[in-house]
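hi!! sorry for the late reply, been swamped w classes. u asked for the two structures so here they r. pasted raw, havent cleaned anything up. first the sequence of the first protein and right below it the tokens
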Amino acid sequence: MLRLVRESRGGTQQYAARALGAFGDTADPDFWSADAFRRKLAVAPPGLIGVGTARYDDVPVVVEVVSQPPVDEPQGWDQVVEASLELPSGKLAIDGCLSYEPTTSPHIELAPGTYRVRVYYAGQNTVDEDWYRVVLWPQSPYEPPRILRQQESSPLTHPG
């Protein structure tokens, strides 16, 4: 599960707790498909993204909301993937797959719409030093996930 370390929006920082997710069904048997395990990013369109982490515990994540796609290069990161996410309510739920509670899980308030979400993975081959950077920006229309940089070997394997 991801633990939100810092949310950055327009130069301000806010602290919150727990993980990244959005509204949807993580119990769907196709959610963590073989493709999702390979990407380390599960998608249940239009409103749920799951981030595969290197360990099953709270992990640090920095969430940034920007107006345009990042121009940084994926080199220097273990893996970089992105997917679209529709937020008709403008609320992005922050929580783990199994601990989401609509009334108590932390949320980030955004303008309603479709966003592109880019996830940067670091420390994937370490013990308890993995961390994640998640960048969101408005983007329409909805597009399928894509891998920008992939780690050669992954500690995650598909159970099937």
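now the second protein. again sequence first, tokens right under
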Amino acid sequence: MADDTESRRRWASVGFGVLGGGLVVAAALTLAPWPRIWSLLGQAPLAGRALAVAGLVFLAGSVVIARGWRRSTPVEPVPRPPLRVLPSWLVLVGIAMVALVSAAVTAWLLGEANKATSNQAQARIEAIRTGLTAGAGAGGGIALLLAARRQWLGERTQAHTEDDATERRITELYTKAVDQLGNGKAPVRLGGLYSLERLAQANRDHRQTIVNVLCAYLRMPYPPPATTDPAAPVTTPAPAPSAGAAAPNDDTAGNPARPPAAELATDTREELQVRLTAQRILTAHLHPGADPDHPPGTFWPDIDLDLTGATLVDLDLGGCRLRKAEFDGAQFSGYAGFSGAQFSGYAGFGGAQFSGYAGFSGAQFSGDAGFGGAQFSGYAGFDGAQFSGGAGFEGAQFSGYAGFEGAQFSGYAGFEGAQFSGGAGFEGAQFSGYAGFGGAEFSGAAFGGAQFSGYAGFDDAQFSGNAWFRGAQFSGYAWFRGAQFSGDAGFSGAQFSGDAGFSGAQFSGDAGFDRAQFSSDAGFGRVRVRLDVPMYTRRVWPAGWKVGPYNTEATDHRPEQWAWLLPENSPTLSEAADNATAGTE
């Protein structure tokens, strides 16, 4: 539709200019110093003035339309509008317009000639001649319009020829660069990478294709070295001999079919530099610069990355803008930086392995984000991250500290079965939708000040360390059924606006529910409390609940001593046990 509009504007500008020029020519002929004509046509100069004014109006319209066309034309090249064959009826319309203009001018001038007081016949002849001249001027304007069309068609043909030559040149350069990537020498492969970068920078339409080639190269199998320091020696372990094979000796050590270890180490180091270069090319062109609202010309917008299963070394995409990013099954060796990155589409990190630092602080995920089954061996920072879509961390493993402080989850947030071996911090996090931590394992967890606007599920979660929920706000359902608190559990000042269920939960350490507010039902049926704890253990239960005496049913053949959490108004132990068995939720 935009191309059709530009085409119409272009033709309107040319048409107005041609008609205006034709009328000005006709006006010049009409206003020629012919004293005999003007003496016979008393008011005829008025016709010349009218033609001149009309011609100037058309010329002004042509300039205005042309200026509007130039302003509306984007900087980036747009596809040319489809070529339209000139219909045959348009020629008939042009002939009719010439005849109409000639007849109208002649009729007008004949009317003026009839008012002449002398030589009326001669005046009529001159009027007819002038009318024919005006018709000839209009015909000349149409002829100029057709000539302009022929010129435009010629320029279009030339442009297509140049485009074809450019595409052939791009194809040749692209093919040569891809061939260089398959070369056995690292410098040649580096040259191929830089050639592809230049092609992508100069040809916007080919950027995604070239990025796909770079991603495909990074997806090729590659065993990362033990260190990324260029000065450090790189060692490559020799492959184990197959069963029944003779041990290598001095005679077979020099077999040319098997490169020496030093050569393999050199190749590994050189290949590392090639891969690091490919990563730097991507990060350099995916970053919008210091002013994201006015990115530099080297920024490549709307780019997808497919690095599924790739081996990435010290990748830093911090602050970059991506559309769709697939890192499922990727191996991040060393640093993995995504702080401040923006993902406008889906971001997939399912099953990815992060051996070092993984930074997603302040990252923005506009679409769904999948981290299911991902493994974080070091620190994992998601503080301040924004998840506008679903966020799936089901089965993820965090061996180091996992920081989600201040993170915002606008949609689904699933952490079912996740393992937090190094502790997890969710202080100030906001969960606007579903928040599921069912079956998750925490060595330590801090949810102080977190806000749960929807469902919050911690059923069967295991807290081997301290679990802090001080000041947390639960607007919807809050379920901790079957949860195990092996360390201290703090719910001081927590607010439960919806139903809260702790049935079947176990508390082994401190338990603080002081100043906790339950606006709706609070179920603590079948809650087990450990009795053989130090004297300084502090426990404050919700109003209306107390710890009963040692109970064999609560202990259930365990080496520790356990008791039920009972309502304060329980008259007898047996009746309290019956109430606990039935549940009070």
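hope this helps!! also noticed smth abt the second:
The two ends are 63 Å apart (CA to CA).
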